[in-house]
Amino acid sequence: MRSTLVGLSSGFIFGLGLVISGMTDPDRILAFLDVAGVWNPSLAFVMAAAIAVAAPAFAFARRRGKTLLGVQLSLPPRFVFTPSLILGSAAFGVGWGLSGFCPGPAVVALATGDYRIWLFVLALMAGWLFADAILNHLEKSGRPIPPVEVSK
Amino acid sequence: MIGTATVMLLLLNGNIAGISGILGRSIKLDFGDSAWRPAFLLGLVLAIPAYQLWQGAAPGYTLDANLPTLLVAGLLVGVGTRVGSGCTSGHGVCGISNLSPRSLTATLTFMASAALVVYVQRHTEGL
Hints:
The structure holds 2 protein chains of 2 kinds. By secondary structure, chain A is an all-alpha fold. In chain A, about 65% of the residues lie in helices and about 5% in strands. Chain A has 6 helices and 2 strands, in the order αααβαααβ. Chain A has a two-stranded antiparallel sheet. The longest helix of chain A is centred in the C-terminal third of the chain and has 26 residues, at about 115-140. Chain A is globular and about 40 Å long. Chain B has helices at about 1-15, 20-25, 35-55, 65-85, 90-95, 100-125. The longest helix of chain B is centred in the C-terminal third of the chain and has 23 residues, at about 100-125. Chains A and B meet through helix 1, helix 2, helix 3, strand 1 and helix 4 of A and helix 1, helix 2, helix 3, helix 4 and helix 5 of B.
């Protein structure tokens, strides 16, 4: 129950942050990505501010290995590189550049009721589930994409 | 606010605010031991209505992409974030905050490919 309430509040604050900083406007995102045009750096400032706040908390969490409530926490791998990391990220970037939406702002913008955004998010979910099924199948059949761990 | 929300989720729940994963696991109905993921999504969806109550008007936006482009883009974002294990929030905000070279690599990759697409669309007359 508590973790659900934390999830709800965190999502709400995260969403408000995106709305207030204008990140739910695809036009503004594309203006950030348009480095050869009239560049709008706002996304970089928003990301930098979030990182400045979150980085000390991550350093604390890494050292402590537990949440403030004493629950064991496991953070994602930091030094594992796979071809899929690069290929997947590159494909995501193409979709982001075509639309101006990444997953967070798109989910927030569902509340506009704009049917185009609903279709975008439906396509996103379909793509995610499709890739998930293929990756799980490859793993089960013993052909996972090999990870490369780089020494720290 | 984005940073604060990320810190809350990390230090209270031990969870990562990676929205592509939160969305994907939720629609797979893979909740684990808690409903925090769908709750987080609900929180996101409530942001615009709350802003509207507070400011009296919804935030403006301009969406120029046509429907076929949006559908292709949605598929690419879905496949890409699953295969690449994250998006702007998970790799870009959380991963970089965690000083992860893996997430930095992912972030630089999707920013570069997105900028390239915008460049081709806006400055090369579609090639």
